[in-house]
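FW: tagging you since you asked about this chain on Friday. Here's the raw sequence from the shared folder, copied in full. Didn't touch anything.
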Amino acid sequence: MGNLDRDFFVASFRRMAEAAEANRDDWTKLDGEIGDGDHGINMSIGFRAVVKQLDELPDDTDVAGTFKLVGMTLLRRVGGASGPLYGSFFMKAGAEVAGQQEVSFEDLPRMLRAGVDSIQQRGKAELGDKTMLDSYLPGLEVLEAADTQDSVAAFTAFVERMKQGSDDTIPLIAKKGRAMRLGERSVGHRDPGSQSSWMLMDCFLEELKARA
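HL: got it, structure written out here
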């Protein structure tokens, strides 16, 4: 797999917008069980705005600039807790490769780690709190330990571990966000952010496969 240029990430973000539309009702239903019931709707609104921004992206925008644009758009347009968390995630991830027109696959774990660190700092959550971090943190450990020579295999393992992390939120008691007020009644419900997280990262994987 060669280096990943801006076009790779633009295509991936467009896939994310499609995923947000396709899963809007499911994500909203999950959120309705333990949260405000607006996660899918908010993500759909945010990524529609992202697509409009990508349509007007200047040709000289580098990878970091593309991530910043996506992050800022989500920050402004996505309501609830998800906007600040996802917005910060993409902005911090892109800042790791400032000035680069393309990045190597080896750069991706570092970018994603910076993004996840920002989620952790902003949300003050830990592993086991029934949040999106229950997908990201175990997934990143797998990605950082993977053989990056086979990018598709490494990223597949990352996404699969994230998906397992989302499954692992179902028996947990929520300790952050609106779901926290439910206490033990949050048991038996999947955290919606953990679900949207692995599905968005799966869009990078699908684009990797398309270019392999």
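FW: The chain has one domain: 4-211.
HL: agreed, and The chain has a mean pLDDT of 92.
FW: great, closing this out.
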